From TrEMBL:
Subcellular location per the Swiss-Prot or TrEMBL entry: Cell inner membrane
Short name of any one Pfam family annotated for the protein: DUF454
TM region(s), chain numbering: 6-39, 74-91, 97-114
Record organism: Stenotrophomonas oahuensis
Keyword set, alphabetical order: Cell inner membrane, Cell membrane, Membrane, Transmembrane, Transmembrane helix
Descriptive protein name: Inner membrane protein
UniProt membrane topology term: Multi-pass membrane protein
Main location, first listed in the record: membrane
Length: 120
């Protein structure tokens, strides 16, 4: 089972790297998931992610406080709004699908925005 967590951790890291390169895909959520996977399989890689100079502070804030920075909240909400607009424009969905996707984005945004801001 440990090897499955390890492999899944690397899949999450790969998705996080892709997210760092593509403006419409998130990064931190995949790295949070990678830290969780490595916590179950490789303390060495878990520690490397938690100590990363760029992403480590966000990952530690989430782990220790369940907190998201103001900048992170702004980018997450903005990304969701942009994604919803692109979905509407590109997919031209039916009303039920539009309402379902909109409700999902709204619930996700409310969750992210309701998280506390990290305390130093």
């Amino acid at each position: 089972m440990r090897w499955m967590w390890f492999a899944l951790g690397w899949v999450m890291v790969a998705l996080g790297v892709i997210g760092a390169l593509l403006p419409v895909m998130p990064t931190t959520i995949f790295l949070i998931l990678a830290v969780g996977c490595f916590a179950r399989s490789s303390p060495k890689f878990e520690r490397k992610l938690l100590e990363h100079p760029k992403y480590g502070p966000s990952l530690r804030a989430w782990r220790e406080q369940g907190a998201v920075s103001r900048k992170g909240k702004a980018f997450a909400a903005g990304g969701m709004a942009f994604g919803f607009v692109m979905f509407c424009w590109g997919a031209r969905p039916s009303w039920p699908l539009l309402l379902g996707v909109g409700a999902f984005f709204l619930a996700s945004a409310i969750y992210v925005l309701s998280r506390p801001t990290p305390v130093p």
